[in-house]
Amino acid sequence: MLQQLTTKYDLRLPRYTSYPTAPHFSKAVDSTVYGGWLAGLAPEAEVSLYLHIAYCAELCWFCGCHTKITRRYAPVEDYLAAVLAEVDLVAERLPGRMTARHVHFGGGSPTILHGEDFSRVITHLRERFALAPDAEIAVELDPRTADEAYVAAMAAAGVTRTSIGVQDFNDTVQRAINRIQPLERIEQVVLWLRRHGITEINMDLVYGLPYQTTASVVEMIDLAVGLRPRRISLFGYAHVPWMKKHQRLIPEAVLPNIQERWDQYEQATRRLDAHGYVTVGLDHFAAPDDTLALALREGRLHRNFQGYTTDGAGVLLGFGASGIGALPQGYVANELDITAYKRTIRDGHLATRRGIPVSADDRLRRDIIERLMCDLAVDLAVIAGRHAVDVSIFQPELASLAGLEQDGIIVRDGSRITVTDAGRPLVRAVCAVFDRYLKRGEARHSKAV
Ligand SMILES: C[S@@+](CC[C@H](N)C(=O)[O-])C[C@H]1O[C@@H](n2cnc3c(N)ncnc32)[C@H](O)[C@@H]1O
Ligand code: SF4
Fold first, then answer.
1. Which residues line ligand 2 (CB under 6 A)?
2. pTM for this prediction
3. Deepest in the core among 149, 299, 363, 410, taking most CB within 10 A?
């Protein structure tokens, strides 16, 4: 029955890492607008920092990230200089030296940086921002490029958390996505991380990849759990060859179909549950005593561009090509093109290219969507009260939810909507009901499951 529903709701839906979502950003928000927003921040507000390192040494054919492949270090060095200059440009516009409690290095592959360069970035950030003593500094780590010296440099610079890009341990799958990294390599990296005191270890796993079967995905889960990560992200492979041309290197015939994807997801989540991991939102799993599981229990879970997070800061500053920021006034996105990004920053300008101011209605709907994505439940009356609007404005949405209720995806108790366990993979379809911007067919997204 639910397998049929996954087919019925095979809508191309946003991942709701923001609301309004990125396809609705426009050129109306440029560097001048962003500069004004930065200057208008409350000096005592806490900020989170996201640095996008848009380079990798080799192309993984399944990759959906914003990155560029380079065999030489010079372009990376050049890019890093631009990112540091951008940090200065932003910091100069802020109302003071603001406190940061979360720093995230994403990409691309931050581990493409030389160890001493990584340390230099952290030193630079510490000059421009007051990094809280208990700040979380998280780095996305490609196990093929991180050696022990690099791990030591990260530890010395204060890194507290890493997400290891595992994808899958299976040979055949690794070959089909051009991402060869034997299990021994991953074990070695985990050992180095623990040896140097970086014990908050996450792993990125993917289902729906070429040649994966339900059995092989369950085996992948067992192998990952054997390395005792604190968190696991289990992403559904987003096959978007119209956007990422290199994904054409993966023949569609060897991709699991929607039914198989559903089965892989379901069995993988069951297995993680059996191993004692707490399911967080849609695709994250955490050890019961991990801060993410704690935040979930206490209703403090948040969702941002990196997925689920404990980070509740009201300001996210994004740096680097494609870097996205979230401010109380609205969202901003940087230039995508790496060469244009470098040039703009070198010329002394902020690289903002698009964005959207958030209205009172956007904030209201964002709260609803965030609670649904995080807690799989929302009380419309509570959120309406918080935003000083009458809950009756949601009559059209409640009417639209009737179909989802009939299909067993949600249950309703007055103004409270709860996504059922079975409906969890379709939570994006529930969020979409509250999305004012979504017109079917307007933007193509990856499969909801
Ligand atoms: C920026 S990468 C992580 C760091 C590093 N580049 C690496 O691959 O190890 C972020 C994660 O996104 C996930 N990812 C990349 N492309 C994807 C796609 N097309 N569909 C689903 N997940 C994807 C992978 O799990 C990957 O580890
Ligand atoms: S998956 Fe990671 S390492 Fe592979 S190309 Fe994408 S960003 Fe680079």
1. 56, 59-60, 63, 65, 67, 107-109, 142, 165
2. 0.94
3. 410
